[in-house]
């Protein structure tokens, strides 16, 4: 067994993966350690309001670039790649200007948080563009440092403001924005040299048309994916309470932070490696199998422990007030497991030009989530029962999603 595991980790792409995972071990620890403090400063209701803010920013952040940043690593030449970076940046700026126009001219009485949403959307779009530039140029260490900066400044801001002033969800938002801003400042220093080319602005419409499938299929697919991820927050806010949303958001924060960083590291390297192979030989199934086995080794033990001991872990680390968040994790563990195995490979649909499958699966996720939570609330089921049905049904869809990604990798 030990020899099997060692053999699976002796491949060319392992160094890049370990660079991202090893370097971001600090980035993984920051949100988890800060949660130990934040849960003693802020209430579940504060976390619920903060989660609602993030759930609004997330889909707008996806929309901000029309997903043209994904053309950056997929382009054959650096000139084409940077034209797509410019195109995505222009779209991001235009969208934020439209949002400002709506805020100032059309809607007069928006709360202050609405303007913070626009700021967050702008910096989210720019972050996505710069991240893909680093991935194209294999600057995985710089990408790692950017994530550390984002989580570190975000934690410092949220904790500091919560201690100095009376705890308020607004200070969680300010902390998040500070991490996003400082992260982008760092990334500008790392990517500005790649922007120093001679641009042909008149060709931007042609670039837009050439990869219009990103906006037609990938954008709706990613929007549905992010809506699926945040749909429970929208619905729990409406049908249940802010405290339920707070418990759910902490559960997601604690589980998805470390697992998300690892899955993202695998996904970043897989995207870059599979794109290289695809242009030479459309079949990259062996690369897929190699990555899947590594992910399976990591996830099997980790999620088994999480599912069994989550209640005790949350009660010990965050206090009795947050015990329910551990109960939520126990019911959601099967879905987190399949999600962890699937998300690194979704880029195979983009690389192989099969974006429509991603759209279909994300639509299925949204429909299932809507049906389960709506009927759970209608029949007044306990939140634990709703979460169990939600997790099991989506686990099955993730399994089918993973199988589709593998079939696509065969060319």
CA radius of gyration is 21 Å
The quaternary state of the protein chains shown equals single chain
N-to-C span: 31 Å
Helicity level: over 70%
Quick one: overall form? globular
Structural class, from secondary structure content? mainly alpha
Order of helices and strands: HHHHHHHHHHHHHHHHH
Strands, total number: 0
Count of alpha/pi helices? 17
**Mean pLDDT value:** 89
> How large a portion of the residues is in β-strands, by DSSP E?
under 5%
List low-confidence stretches.
none
How is the main sheet built?
A: none
How would you describe this structure to a colleague?
The protein has helices at 2-8, 14-23, 25-41, 44-63, 71-74, 78-106, 112-136, 140-164, 169-191, 204-210, 212-239, 242-280, 285-318, 323-342, 347-351, 355-378, 383-409. It is mainly α. The longest helix has 39 residues, at 242-280. The two termini are 31 Å apart. The model has no long low-confidence stretch (mean pLDDT 89).
SSE layout and pairing:
Elements: H1 2-8, H2 14-23, H3 25-41, H4 44-63, H5 71-74, H6 78-106, H7 112-136, H8 140-164, H9 169-191, H10 204-210, H11 212-239, H12 242-280, H13 285-318, H14 323-342, H15 347-351, H16 355-378, H17 383-409
Helix pairs in contact: 2-8, 2-12, 3-8, 3-12, 4-7, 4-9, 4-11, 4-12, 6-7, 7-9, 8-9, 11-12, 11-16, 12-13, 12-14, 13-14, 14-17, 16-17
